Amino acid sequence: MVSLPRPHxxxxxxxxxxxGLTRLTAHQAQAAAxxxxxxxxxxYAALRDRDGTIPGALVVERNELEWxxxxxxxxxxxxxxxHDITPIVICNEGYASSLAAVSLQALGLHRATDLxxxxxxxxxxxxxxxxxxxxxxxxxxxx
Length: 143
Description:
By secondary structure, the chain is α/β, with parallel strands linked by helices. It has one domain (21-130): Oxidized Rhodanese, domain 1 (3-Layer(aba) Sandwich), CATH 3.40.250.10. The protein has seven helices and four strands. The longest helix has 11 residues, at 96-106. Residues 33-131 form the Rhodanese domain. InterPro entries: Rhodanese-like_dom, Rhodanese-like_dom_sf.
């Protein structure tokens, strides 16, 4: 009988993923973006519609992330110029982004990391957010 390896739970998998990351606070991520790092928002549309977005962040759905940021892929974004870019992955609360950042590291994007606490930590830090109404082009005027 072949012995299968013990399965890992998600908490263990997440802890292992984070061992290889230098996770950033919201203010550190903002400073890194000012120096050329790419803020990459992987939240799904319903969350962006509900909460807004970070100005200047690239919106890349999670299921397309590796294809869009791999410098060797013909479907890459123009910003994915080489393996030395610094993608800072942002999810809603900072869980899925850790796993996604490790996936990018496996592609050779050795500077990939994520935002601890995700979009919610960015907003809680009082950093700029484009409101959902601005995303839809709505204008709310006073009476």
